[in-house]
Amino acid sequence: MATTSAVKIGARCIFKVNGRFFLIAEIEAKTTGVEIEPDVIIRLTNDQAARLLAGGIKRCQISSTKPTASPGTKVEFKCIFIDGNKAFSIFDVENSTRDDAVLVPITVQRAKTLIARGVRRCTVIRSRIQ
Is 84 left (phi over 0), alpha (psi -120 to 50) or beta? Predict the structure, then answer.
């Protein structure tokens, strides 16, 4: 009997803001009646980022405009990320051949306003240094 995992990693990429590196990982948990797809952002050391980039994790796309859906391509807003004086809206762009995170810069004031209105703020965790 073949089984498939109910949990997979979707979009994943690395970005640098304010001199610090972060890894975005979309956790996709899907089974009958359940579909959960949160993005988790992990703070990386410079060494971890360099090793992950060398290992094939790509850099995140940063776009000045919000991505738009098209036939066969789904765009989903995920969360607001704030680090010091920088803020981004993060989107998942997915079709049959790609599953990418796209970051769109916004002002910190706009980010705080959106969060105050109930928009999800990204979960950021620190990597365990080994």
Answer: left
Residue 50 DSSP symbol: H
Outline where the chain has alpha helix (H): 46-54, 108-116
Domain ranges of the chain: 7-126
Query: What is the distance between the alpha carbons of residues 96 and 11, in angstroms, rounded to a whole number?
Result: 13
List the structure tokens of 8: 């997979």
Question: pLDDT digits over 28-43, tens only?
Answer: 888 888 887 778 899 9
Residues 6+ apart with CB under 8 A from 34: 6
- Separation CA 99–CA 42 (nearest Å): 18
For CA atoms 104, 88, 103, 14, the dihedral sign is positive
**In sequence order, which residues have a C-beta less than 8 Å from that of residue 92 and are 6 or more positions away?**
10, 11, 26, 37, 39, 74, 75, 76, 78, 99, 100, 101, 102
Q: Are strands 61-62 and 99-106 parallel, antiparallel or unpaired?
A: parallel
Total-model pTM? 0.85
Please give the pLDDT value at position 57.
95
